[in-house]
Amino acid sequence: xxxxxxxxxxxxxxxxxxxxxxxxxxxxxxxxxxxxxxxxxxxxxxxxxxxxxxxxxxxxxxxxxxxxxxxxxxxxxxxxxxxxxxxxxxxxxxxxxxxxxxxxxxxxxxxxxxxxxxxxxxxxxxxxxxxxxxxxxxxxxxxxxxxxxxxxxxxxxxxxxxxxxxxxxxxxxxxxxxxxxxxxxxxxxxxxxxxxxxxxxxxxxxxxxxxxxx
Length: 214
Prior knowledge:
With 214 residues, the protein is α/β, with parallel strands linked by helices. 35% of the residues lie in helices and 18% in strands. The chain is built from seven helices and eight strands. The strands form two sheets. Strands 3-2-4-1-6-7 form a six-stranded mixed β-sheet, sandwiched between helices. A two-stranded antiparallel sheet has the order 5-8. It is globular and about 50 Å long.
């Protein structure tokens, strides 16, 4: 059977629910999931329970770690943190404050601390460079694990970068919260077999309200 990739955007963020949150936050670029974001993450995990997922990779931001951890609970699998599929932040000039390794170890026991990342994150970075970085990382992961089906939990803009970079599609992509894109290897390339899927969510309007488009 051909190799498959599932690409999932994180659930709803606390700063989407509370727009003033970042003004007093210690880590303004690293918000947690909101309460309904936690529900979305659990629902996307439930929808993937019967899929042949071999490896879970997540961006190192808190919201993606939380989303991936809920999915990992449903699949009973570890999570590998991969900075190369991290957020694209074209307005940020240096690495933003993120959850510490100590806190991460305490809160997220499913994170595999022995995993060796494909690529690091570095800012500043343009949107185009971020798209290319996310796609290159996804491609490198498929080459590192050619016999594995991979699930990647990331952000709206990297989803666009990965899907476009691997498949060559050029039409505009809409990326709702906790949506699923499914790609399948087709010879030496990849094809989209499912895009922007949110039928697993109980509140689809909330997911679409904060959709990323690119």
